[in-house]
Design a protein that fits this description.
Layout lengths: L7 H53 L17 H5 L1 E2 L8 E2 L21 E4 L16 E4 L15
Length: 155
């Protein structure tokens, strides 16, 4: 009676094919994960920037208390979540702009969401952003470039 089983050659060829498939799949998986984080970053930037613009519109319309000479942008990001008093309401109602502050998906998970962003004040340039009395814009503190070739700081 003849023994059944695989020959050494068949096992080696099978392992070589599996190794080749794994070497192709690993970079592809990494790219898919990175693309997902980049989409999260895009969404977070959109949410925060949309909330900043909404705050500015409300301040310019006189619905939010605004001091003379101020830009009309919030003094810090947390204000967008905590809300501000609506000047139109006699009952002291608040206007809220975000349910929660999104975090930069490329930042250290130990950081609080508000610490994960770079802040740009109204009086700073886009090339040399710095924080100040207000929050005009946010940017990612992540190093490196996106899959589109643009540094994350410039998104």
């Amino acid at each position: 009676m003849r023994a059944r089983g695989f020959t050494l050659i068949e096992v080696v060829i099978t392992l070589a094919i599996l190794g080749l498939l794994a070497s192709i799949a690993a970079p592809l998986t990494e790219t898919v994960i990175r693309r997902g984080k980049e989409q999260e970053l895009r969404d977070a930037l959109y949410q925060i920037r949309d909330a900043l613009d909404a705050y500015k519109r409300e301040a310019d319309a006189g619905h939010i208390e605004k001091s003379v000479g101020s830009s009309g942008y919030p003094p810090k990001l947390q204000v967008l979540v905590d809300g501000v008093r609506d000047q139109r309401s006699a009952k002291g109602a608040k206007i809220y702009f975000l349910r929660r502050l999104p975090r930069d998906p490329f930042s250290d998970p130990k950081l609080k969401p508000e610490e994960s962003w770079g802040l740009r004040a109204y009086d700073s340039s886009a090339q040399e952003p710095h924080d100040g009395e207000d929050v005009f814009d946010v940017y990612s503190l992540a190093r490196g470039k996106g899959l589109n070739g643009i540094p994350y700081r410039e998104w």
